[in-house]
Amino acid sequence: MSKLLVCGFYTESYRDDIERLEISLKRFSMDYQFTxxxxxxxxxATTGLKPQVLRQCLLDNPERDVLYIDADAFVRREITGFxxxxxxxxxxxxxxxxxRASHSIRTGTIFLRNTPAxxxxxxxxxxxxxxxxxxxxxxxxxxxxxxxxxxxxxxxxVEYVKIFDKDNVKxxxxxxxxxxxNEDNKAVSRKRQKKVRNLILLLVNxxxxxxxxxxxxx
Length: 218
Hints:
Protein name: Nucleotide-diphospho-sugar transferase domain-containing protein
Structural class: alpha/beta
Strand order of the largest sheet: 2-1-3-6-5-7
Oligomer: single chain
CATH topology: Spore Coat Polysaccharide Biosynthesis Protein SpsA, Chain A
Helix content: 25-40%
Transmembrane segments: 199-216
CATH superfamily: Spore Coat Polysaccharide Biosynthesis Protein SpsA, Chain A
Pfam families: Nucleotid_trans
Largest sheet: 6 strands, mixed
InterPro entries: Nucl-diP-sugar_transferase, Nucleotide-diphossugar_trans
Domain Nucleotide-diphospho-sugar transferase: 46-164
């Protein structure tokens, strides 16, 4: 049995994607553990389940390291090389993304050694995600990464997290950005968040107006 276990999760709307990923994993005889989840209040909150799924996968398999892969990805060739990397967690830092990159890291592929430091970082990631339903997993990851932690990180080469229409490399893992199908859902989520902010500002203004009116009448 290989020490490496592929981990992933999916909602019902991603079932076709996860089945394609499964086919690619079977081609290279890779072990995997997929977790079905229910959609959360918004797209961002659903992506925010990622650290919880990863933590549980590590706890379920204490003798194995975990390679997380998004449901909308496909393994192109046999995955090797992780024994050559030093560190608890491997993730791609998006320096070459420039202004086009929405975040400084890509969380579509993550390598996790089954160490106490890794579990500690996942706890911090989960805590940051709990602060705001409208954080996507990259937002909360960055917040956890920017604070003190005991985990060590290494840069996962882009070949492990190639975006199908962006990176001109021969990939191990290719990501097809299925979330682009959900741009309308993301837009609705952002509009809802903006409405909430506007409502809060309106209530604050009314409260201040009432306070000034009351004080002026004294």
